[in-house]
Specification:
This protein is 41% helix and 20% strand. The chain has 285 residues and is of the alpha/beta class. The termini are far apart. The protein binds S-adenosylmethionine. The site of S-adenosylmethionine has 22 residues, from helix 1, strand 4 and helix 7. Keywords: Methyltransferase, RNA-binding, rRNA processing, S-adenosyl-L-methionine, Transferase.
């Protein structure tokens, strides 16, 4: 396991992922009923953009920095942007929240969050960050060193029936797309009504087409929808030219917000004139 998210925190991929994650949980908050979120690949939860690792790549400068500098972001992005702004005094950007931190901010007293992180050092950092930022919040559970795919199988169906699984792997293993499909198959078999949100990198668009088809073909998946973002034209299929998010049972209100969010962030995150986004229903009941 070589991947460390601290090199990439706040990049264009995080912006898309976290903006849509925020929208999903905001939608789940609309009803009083409790929700559960399982974050299978949690990372460390908080990133120092001026630290050694983030500074080496500077990826956040063409990600969250551009978004924060843009005037008049739509209402749909305000919750996420305010969460980042609150961490950074005087408009100087240094701290960037990961998916666990953003999710914990959106929990109400009745909600539960389970975080899995396999990398031993990152798991320890995650546990420390959670106990510092969300002390005495028994509702945030850190599964130290736990494999997120195994946890998805073991923890479903959850006692809280409404909720979402966020799957955000590093994609450093060749068979990561197959592992995701397998985990989704197992998860949806046990908990067919849960929402599942999967982040993926886009290099070769043909691989993404196959992945979409395999998810749509799973027997317990009745609704699947995907949003793809290219930050540059995909001429070189060995580079990460963009990323996407696949939603199984997408929260209804989120699909309605996608165009507003993506129309705003795509030109800001563009790295050449080939930047574009698209949405697609892969399966609808
Ligand atoms: C892309 S990062 C997660 C970023 C995080 N979701 C966020 O948005 O802030 C992927 C993380 O998954 C961890 N990881 C890799 N394989 C895993 C597995 N099978 N189960 C749990 N965590 C894993 C890596 O150590 C890494 O920290």
């Amino acid at each position: 396991m070589n991947y460390r998210h601290s090199y990439h925190a706040g990049n264009f991929a995080d912006v898309m992922k976290h903006a849509l994650q925020w929208a999903c949980l905001a939608y789940l908050q609309e009803k009083d009923k409790p929700f559960w979120l399982l974050d299978t690949h949690a990372g460390i939860g908080m990133y120092d953009l001026l630290g050694e690792q983030a500074s080496k790549t500077g990826e956040w400068q063409s990600g969250i920095a551009r978004l924060l500098a843009a005037p008049e972001a739509p209402q749909e992005l305000q919750g996420y942007l305010q969460a980042v702004r609150h961490l950074n005094a005087d408009d100087a950007l240094r701290w960037y929240p990961g998916s666990p931190y953003l999710a914990a901010l959106q929990l109400r007293a009745q909600d539960q969050l389970t975080l899995c992180e396999l990398h031993p050092e990152d798991a320890r950092a995650l546990a420390q960050n959670v106990s510092r930022d969300f002390p005495s919040r028994g509702q945030v559970k850190v599964e130290l060193g736990r494999n997120g795919y195994a946890a998805l199988k073991a923890l479903t169906p959850p006692p809280i029936k409404r909720g979402m699984v966020l799957i955000d792997p590093p994609f450093e293993q060749r068979d990561e797309f197959s592992q995701v499909v397998q985990a989704l198959g197992a998860g949806t078999k046990r908990w067919a009504t849960g929402s599942y949100v999967i982040w993926y990198p886009i290099k070769d668009p043909l691989i993404i087409g196959d992945f979409h088809q395999q998810v749509a073909d799973l027997p317990h998946v009745s609704k699947a929808y995907a949003v793809d973002l290219l930050v540059r034209g995909p001429q070189d299929a060995t580079r990460m030219n963009g990323c996407g998010m696949l939603f199984v049972n997408p929260p209804y209100g989120v699909v309605q917000q996608v165009a507003t969010i993506m129309n705003f962030i795509t030109p800001l995150l563009a790295q050449d004139r080939g930047a574009e986004w698209q949405e697609r229903w892969l399966k609808s009941a």
